[in-house]
Amino acid sequence: MSTPILPAAAAAAAVEPVDEPRRTRRRGPRRPVATTILYVLLILLALVVILPLVWMVVTSFKTDADAIRNPYSLPSPLSLDAYRTLAGGQQPILLWLWNSFAAATLQTLLILVTASMGAYALARLDFAGKKVIFGLIISTLLVPPVVFLIPNYLIVQNLGWLDTILAITVPGAAGAFGIFFLRQFFVGLPVEIEEAARIDGAGDLRIFLQVVLPLARPALATLAVLSFLNNWNDFLWPVYVLLSPENMTLQPGLSMLQGAYRTHFAIVMAGAVVASVPVLVLFGIAQRQIVESVTGAAVKG
Questions:
Q1: Measured between alpha carbons, how far is 83 from 113 in angstroms, rounded to an integer?
Q2: What phi and psi values does residue 169 have, to the nearest 5 degrees?
Q3: What is the arithmetic mean of pLDDT over 192-220?
Q4: What is the predicted pLDDT for the residue at 3?
Q5: Of 66 and 262, which is predicted with more confidence?
Q6: Strand locations in 113-180, DSSP E?
Q7: CA angle, 107 as apex, 103 and 111 as ends, to 5°?
Q8: Per-residue pLDDT tens for 100-151?
Q9: Nearest C-alpha neighbor of 114 from the set 186, 174, 184, 183
Q10: Is 23 a member of any domain?
Q11: Does the pLDDT value for residue 40 go beyond 90?
């Protein structure tokens, strides 16, 4: 006969935990070969990007003869002749540098003003034909920039802006890319923030200046860097509208360092190094804002 189970023993048996097998977290199979190949490809890609810059800097510290005789070797001896030629030569390299900086800064400020206002209107305001206007603005991105070369030249000529800083800043001050870029950022901002400010009595202009623009600081910094680089690296347009050497910007001015029958590679590379320094400094200053803009877009997406 089986012994009956007492109620207390049954309750204890029910309460007593039952040992269960431990569940081990399964980790995915490691793929050292694939990881190694990935790192090798990334290193090769980094070398493709870095080596031309290293070669540019190394060549700038060579003599002209050494740059031609040994283009892929270290400078022997180390020479600063190319930089001395730039500083004290016949070409006003420092004046070109200032002209480029002034033009790029002025156009960047104009782009930030026009693009932010246009983008906010297309993102938040309701008016007739808004989608059509936005579509027409985006369609201009499909047109090659060289198509606008002759019309812009005629406009600048009729306004009397040839050989002035206005000729290389105003025509590109209202680009479609800046409007599209900032509009996408404004659309992603919570509408509740603007509604709360409107309840407190703020108007559209005050909301735009004191609420929206501070929140869009990462996007504005990114657009500022891109606009500055676009104007800084522009070569074709300044060649057409800048006539005198003292009003020349850096990029077309560097082409004047090349002779008709001989190219001074060390001097040209030294000029390229000088042209790269402000861009690197600007990127170092705005790097944090650019990263915040990219990560914020990724989180919203």
A1: 38
A2: -125, -45
A3: 89
A4: 47
A5: 66
A6: none
A7: 170
A8: 999 999 999 999 999 999 999 999 888 888 899 999 999 998 988 888 899 9
A9: 174
A10: no
A11: yes
Contact 115, 183 (CB under 8 A): no
Residue 289 contacts residue 221 (beta carbons within 8 Å): yes
State how far the Cα of 124 lies from the Cα of 212, in Å rounded to an integer.
11
Domain extent at residue 117: 91-300
CB-based contact 162:241 (threshold 8 Å): yes
- For the chain, the average pLDDT equals 83
Using pLDDT thresholds of 50, 70 and 90, give the confidence band for residue 1: very low
248-257, Cβ contacts within 8 angstroms, sequence gap of 24 or more = 248/96, 248/99, 249/96, 249/99, 249/100, 249/103, 249/168, 250/93, 250/96, 250/97, 250/99, 250/100, 250/274, 250/275, 251/100, 251/275, 253/91, 253/92, 253/93, 253/96, 254/96, 256/91, 257/91
28 belongs to a structural domain: no
60 and 179 share one domain: no
Top-confidence residue, 105 or 278: 105
Domain count, the chain: 2
Helix, strand, coil share of the chain (percent; to 5): 70, 0, 30
Residue matched to tokens 């109620």? 7
CA-based R_g, the chain, Å: 31
Nearest to 249 by CA among 227, 233, 225, 273: 233
Residues 69 and 208 in one domain: no
Q: What is the distance between the alpha carbons of residues 237 and 173, in angstroms, rounded to a whole number? A: 14
**All residues at 6 or more sequence positions from 85 whose CB lies less than 8 Å from its CB, including other chains:** 264, 267, 270
Asked whether residue 169 falls in the same domain as residue 254, the answer is yes
Mean pLDDT of all residues in 166-181: 91
Do 293 and 148 lie in one domain? The reply is: yes
Residue 9: pLDDT over 50 = no
The answer to whether 99 and 81 are in contact (CB under 8 A) is no
